[in-house]
Structure formats: structure tokens, C-alpha cells
Write the C-alpha cells for this entry.
Amino acid sequence: MFDYRKAASYCKEPVIMIEHAWEAASDVENMWTIRHKLETEHTPEELRKMRKWYNRPASELYFTLETE
């Protein structure tokens, strides 16, 4: 499961298009979080300054378990 409103604020396309969205939606035992693929190159603060934190295409986002 995941926070749909939070995910929708990050993605300008339907949330279900985000990588691993089906797994996150169907998993009732674990909480999933949304991550930016650009976080491998930039910090969240840098992405916010570049205005690449919210309203991103689904191809730039993915879901991961909160424990990862």
C-alpha cells in the first residue's frame, strides 16, 4: 500500500504508470514509498531547487518498500 495523494503530487501522469505501482497497490502488508530516479545523481534538496521534485513524468519515478 502507498499514500495515493502523495504519489499523485509527484507524478503528472496516472500513478499506476509509475514503476512497481501494481505491486505497491496490491501489497497490504507493507508500506511503499515513491522515489525519484534522479536521486542517484542529486539530493532531494537539489531536485527541489531545480524544480524537478513535484509534477514529474512517471518514467522518472518508482515505488520501493519503505524498509529499503
User: Anything to note?
Assistant: DSSP finds three helices and two strands in the chain. Residues 23 and 47 are 26 Å apart (CA to CA).
